[in-house]
Amino acid sequence: MSLKKPGTPFSILDLAVVTEGSSISGAISNSRDLAIQAEDLGYNRFWMAEHHNMENIASSATSVLLGHIAEATTKIRVGSGGVMLPNHSPLVIAEQFGTLASIYPGRIDLGLGRAPGTDQVTANAIRSDRMQQVQKFPEHIKQLQKYLSTENSTAAVRAFPGEGTEIPIWILGSSTDSAFLAAELGLPYAFASHFAPQQLMPAIQLYRRHFKPSKQLDSPYIMPLVNIIASETDEQAEYLSTSMKQMFMGVITGERKPMPPPVDDMDSIWNEHVKYGVNQMLTYSFIGSKETIEKDVNHFIDQTGADEIMIASYIYDHNERVKSHRLFSEVMSATFA
Q: Which positions, given as ranges, span the membrane (predicted)?
């Protein structure tokens, strides 16, 4: 089948980010509220990502949270962006997502990545043979597809729930390696350009050039990720973006703390080395008023030929975050409908 549809669909990646002064339960509650409002705003998907040992991210038990989100909504697609498959048994993922698909039929996506989603010490605590499992990533994707198919009904090992659900599988990545794998398997491809922009264009070109049609997908389908912070004015959006910049400072320095409130002057916080690193990671971050966002996103979609665009919005204040998503939906609905 083809996933293509009129216009450019737009979707959300959420990490249940814990902000300074808040709690894990508060972060999860805010994610659920955002999903409810995103559904009304016309967003196509609401994905959550697996991370571990990070004080500022509460999405480690990804499948559990996805059930919490799906229960609160009725039509928006809910999925993983992604599950880090080498951390898990393919059978267990088939059972977990098969359970979700049985409760919420036709609404579950399964995005798969091969990174650990954490530091190496924690990765080893999750699975001591993880490096061997990384090498089996393509093989385990195929095994997972088999567990979710009707063709597995005569196998010795079967996924209940899961078998026959045929949950759409996506490949997530940030390099040409993942692009080639997605193309070889004929699967839709989500590129993590919101924090790893360097290989976006080569990966897109490689994916489209080498794509092989599959049972799931008959033509290439690319969904790049970008950061969006929209507000009434460019100045207000820039101010709000300082929370995101401080959060990404933590990625570079290794100091992962709850996301702090915005500040008036980033130059009082970072040095030139950290500033350069953060700005490199945030190359595909569109910050500003609706007019500014429209111009930047229009150019990005023209540049990439994206079939769908997924956004992450790291904003300290939940009401401002919801507003940013509302403004972005207005841009997409007016410009790309």
A: none
- Cα distances from 52 to residues 24, 122, 126, 267, in angstroms, run 14, 7, 9, 30
Mean pLDDT of the chain: 95
- CATH numeric code, 10-232+285-335: 3.20.20.30
User: Does this model's pTM top 0.90?
Assistant: yes
- In the chain, which stretches have pLDDT less than 70? 1-6, 335-337
Spatial CB neighbours of 39, under 8 Å, sequence gap ≥ 6: 46, 73, 74, 75, 76
Residue indicated by tokens 């070889």: 184
| 130-152 pLDDT, tens digit each | 889 889 999 999 999 999 999 99
String of DSSP letters for 111-161: EEE-S-SS-HHHHHHH-TTHHHHHHTHHHHHHHHHHHTSGGGGGSSS--TT
Neighbours of 19 (CB within 10 A): 22
CA dihedral 312, 313, 314, 318 (to 10 degrees): -130
Angle at alpha carbon of residue 224, lines to 218 and 229, rounded to 5°: 145
